[in-house]
Amino acid sequence: MSNNSACVLHLRIDLQFLRQNCKASLFSITIYPREIY
Q1: Closest to 26 measured CA to CA, from 36, 12, 13
Q2: Which range marks the domain in which residue 10 is found?
Q3: pTM to 2 decimals?
Q4: Whether the Cβ atoms of residue 36 and residue 29 lie closer than 8 Å to each other
Q5: Nearest of 7, 30, 36 to residue 15 by alpha carbon
C-alpha cells in the first residue's frame, strides 16, 4: 500500500510539473521541431 501511495503522489507531482511547463514545452516544440524528429 505504501508503494502505491508513493507512486500516486509521484504521478500527481509530474502532472503539476507538466501543467506548469505545458506552454513552454509547446513553445520549444514549435521552434525546434527538427531536434524532436
Answers
A1: 36
A2: 2-36
A3: 0.31
A4: yes
A5: 7
**Cα–Cα distance, 19 to 25 (Å, whole number):** 10
Distance CA(8)–CA(31), nearest Å, equals 33
Amino acid at 7: C
- Count: domains in the chain: 1
pLDDT in tens, 1-37: 566 676 566 667 677 776 666 666 666 656 555 555 4
Cβ atoms within 10 Å of 25's Cβ, excluding its own: 11
Distant-in-sequence contacts of 23-32, Cβ < 8 A, 24+ apart: none
